[in-house]
Amino acid sequence: MSENSFYLTTPIYYVNDAPHIGHAYTTVAGDVLTRWHRQRGESVWFLTGTDEHGQKVLNTAEKNNVAPQEWCDRLVEGAWKPVWKALNIANDDFIRTTEPRHMERVQRFLSGLKDQGHIYSGKYEGPYCIGCEEFKLPGDLLDGGLCPIHSKPCDILSEENWFFRLSAFVPALLEHYKNNPSACEPTSARNEVLAFLEGDVQDLSISRSTFDWGIPVPWDTEQVIYVWFDALLNYATAVGLGDEPGSAGAEKFAKTWPADVHLVGKDILRFHAVIWPAMLMAAGLPLPKKVFAHGWLLVGGEKMSKSKLTGIAPADITDHFGVDAFRYYFLRAIPFGSDGSFSWEDMGARYTSELANDFGNLASRLIAMIEKYCGGAIPALARDAGLEAALAETVTKADAAMVALDFQGGINAIMEFCKRVNGYVTEREPWIVAKDESRTPELLEILYNTADAIRALAVLLYPVMPTTCETLWNSLGMDSEISSQKISEVATWGQIKPGTRVTKGAVLFPRLEEPAAK
Ligand code: MSP
């Protein structure tokens, strides 16, 4: 894998229902981060997809009187892909676990592990939560045997299954996380994983025999592969895992693997930070560089979820605030890694103060002044040492924060610069300067500096709010593509060319209608 490449994955989502804003939170974070890395000039691969096998999806399909494959096709095409498109998600690939490219590679991988002696047959007896699709340990459950995530009783299974020797990898996993603190973040997540590994880790049942909606175990077709074992492999099957040397798949795998970041919600941390790396170790493959566990969007203090009827569809919010404000709000308001509550009022307040006032108005005032005082053309190049230095510092800060998945810190740094530019305009009072003809050079200087600062803001905010920033970029008359602007070059002052014609575009953040009672 080359130095200049960046491979990021989201979890693949269960297709038992349509996406809610919790799912969108993860995918938008992945999209913002990969767009940022693209703007750094890296060769990016961004994967998302759907997790279609297992009992949970099967039960939902049955409840709806539809064959499971048809159910999955319906939801993927009718709900998941359209929502990602509406949210402007620029994924490079979308993997479905029912695709032959995935199923064949999973079977090959499992046979490989069996040949190496990592798989044996045994009996599983214990609780299983279908909502989590997880074999639970008695200590994981609430009183009455309830799953702590779904607050529902677990099934009690008793099955002859195939087992993976997970426990054999515990010492190597402990060493891995002790030697590579950045392999699991934030620190709270890493501590949770270390504590789990220091406990009594059991081998893992990796097949099910009581239903058939899954990938058949290649040597025992009475059993299907456990849905998590199937699903985790998507990150590698999508980029050519185990393909013939010399094939396109093998080439893609060599270029892409290991993943730089697996983005996950904290509910699925153990699968990603314990089971997945153990599977890779067993196969002799390199481990992902980082698993990052973000927090939950909460409703009434609990994880938002469709099964608890608290799921909010992204469109409920984007219809009112627009897609870019949606993309901005959650990453700006909640430290990535912590839980956060969605509040209609807080989102409205930030929309108005940060987006409409600080950013949108700054841009529209500048364009109006250039039209009024300069006939719509950018004046001669000018400089302001203070603004230039502040921009350079902003880019350094924002870049460091974004690559560390501190979205809030990165966006804050950029919005602080936006405030600084507003301060510059307020302080220099171009509308007063304009009244005195002898001060025209000063007026032009203020307008140039403001315009170039806004050019930089458009590029820095582009990964977060692509449509708005592109609109702004075009109304500044820039002749290059905003997507080809490099983060490393944003701070170079003077990129907006004198003489360029600006145009008044649509209002970037229109005044909000009174919110409907929600
Ligand atoms: N299919 C598994 C993942 C397999 S990955 C190999 C799964 N799917 S899921 O659809 O239930 O959830 C996927 C992810 O959605 C969660 O891990 C999390 O990233 C995100 N979220 C679901 N609900 C959420 C919130 N309420 N808040 C934040 N993120 C949430 O688990």
Which CATH class of one domain applies here? Mainly Alpha
Number of helices: 19
Rg from alpha-carbon coordinates? 26 Å
Termini separation: 48 Å
Report the mean per-residue pLDDT as an integer. 95
CATH topology of one domain: Isoleucyl-tRNA Synthetase, Domain 1
Any ligands, ions or cofactors bound here, and which? Answer: 5'-O-[(L-methionyl)-sulphamoyl]adenosine
> Uncertain spans, ≥5 residues at pLDDT below 50?
none
For this structure, the quaternary state is single chain
What is the CATH H-level superfamily of one domain?
A: Isoleucyl-tRNA Synthetase, Domain 1
Main sheet makeup: 6 strands, parallel
CATH architecture of one domain: Orthogonal Bundle
Strand content: 5-15%
Shape, per Cα inertia axes: elongated
Structural class: alpha/beta
Strand runs, count: 16
Task: Describe the protein.
By secondary structure, the protein is of the alpha/beta class. The chain has a domain at 344-489: Isoleucyl-tRNA Synthetase, Domain 1 (Orthogonal Bundle). Helix content is 48%, strand content 15%. It has 19 helices and 16 strands. Strands 3-2-1-12-13-7 form a 6-stranded parallel beta sheet, with helices on both faces. A 4-stranded antiparallel beta sheet has the order 5-4-6-8. The chain has a 3-stranded antiparallel beta sheet with strand order 9-11-10. The chain is elongated and about 90 Å long. The two termini are 48 Å apart. The model has no long low-confidence stretch (mean pLDDT 95). Bound molecules: 5'-O-[(L-methionyl)-sulphamoyl]adenosine (MSP). 5'-O-[(L-methionyl)-sulphamoyl]adenosine binds at residues 11-14, 22-23, 25-26, 51, 231-232, 234, 264-265, 267-268, 296-297, 303-305.
